[in-house]
Amino acid sequence: MIGRILKSGILFVNCVGLLLCSTVFAAGYDYQITAQKMTFSWKVDGANLNVKLSAPTKGWVGIGFNPSKEMKDAKYVLGYIKDGKAIISDEFGTGDTKHEAVEDLGGKSDVTLVGGSEEGGVTTLEFILPLVAQDTKGGKIDPAADTVVLLAYGPDHDGFKMKHKFRTKLTVNLATGKNK
Fold first, then answer.
1. pTM score of the predicted model
2. Looking at the domain assignment, is residue 91 inside a domain?
3. 7 pLDDT above the threshold of 80
4. CA-to-CA separations, 140 to 50, 124, 126, 134, 135, in angstroms, rounded
């Protein structure tokens, strides 16, 4: 009986240890860019892009990929923390200065929320984005090519209706981490 309990306990500890090790390993990012206190960290993981965004705000943080003009035709992911819970939105650039939720445009969100936090006036959001969108509202991100990345964050207000407090445009090779 005691031997059985010990074996069960050892198995449990090994399983928990394996789970913790794989979680810590999966949380790593290969590259990071900081633009005026906003940080974009990422890792190309097979057919996905693992992303972490952090900015000095108690409001939303967001990223866009490959607009055709200003904000038009870009894939966007925005998120904020409310009552300790991350809220995320998968969006598409419908105009030069406008984006809308993919679901409102008849599409399906393909962004997977990993987590988020708001500590010390900094909002952090982590998610997984497929490199090839599941519908027409997201396009394709080729990690080996130069990718136009739009970073932004809003003022200290939960919700997506407030205009950005900060925004910038970068050209990045997601496979090498080079910022042009």
1. 0.80
2. yes
3. no
4. 15, 25, 20, 10, 10
